[in-house]
Amino acid sequence: MAAGTTVDHLTETYRAHYRSLLGLAALLLDDTASCEDVVQEAFIRVHSARNRVREPEKTLAYLRQTVVNLSRSALRRRILGLKLLSKPMPDMASAEEGAYDQLERDALIKAMKGLQRRQREVLVLRYFADMTEAQVAETLGVSLGSVKAYGSRGIAALRVVMEAQA
């Protein structure tokens, strides 16, 4: 007789102990599909190495140990996968939102064109070029008070136009 577990013995062991090995995997893992995969993989691995199982009565012990080891590996892969997952991407705006944003930008540009030249200059430098009031005053060659006044009046005029369009 050849050394190792025979295919027939392994098949009998499979039929007799599949459910108990599935139960063992279920104690270690959390979903049925993973448990079934682990048990199937355990039988495949023991089948491939059946010549190394010298005593057929130890086949079940080898299968149990293989199920435990494969369950541990599955859990390690899950944990590693969770650690490596990048942060989720922010929700992308829908096409409708993008179109609405474009309409708002167009309305704002149109409203900005209706402002007085100095009001428009102050608002563009202050809010679009991200300058401080002092930097705007220096750039335009006007006083800080003038920048504040032009800015305040410009925003009030924009608010009136934008609310009228809404």
Automatic annotation (TrEMBL):
Residues 106-158 form the RNA polymerase sigma factor 70 region 4 type domain. Keywords: DNA-binding, Sigma factor, Transcription, Transcription regulation. Residues 14-78 form the RNA polymerase sigma-70 region domain. It holds the Pfam family Sigma70_r4_2. Gene3D superfamilies: 1.10.1740.10, Winged helix-like DNA-binding domain superfamily/Winged helix DNA-binding domain. Belongs to the sigma-70 factor family. ECF subfamily. NCBIfam families: SigE-fam_strep, sigma70-ECF. This is RNA polymerase ECF-type sigma factor. It comes from Streptomyces globisporus.
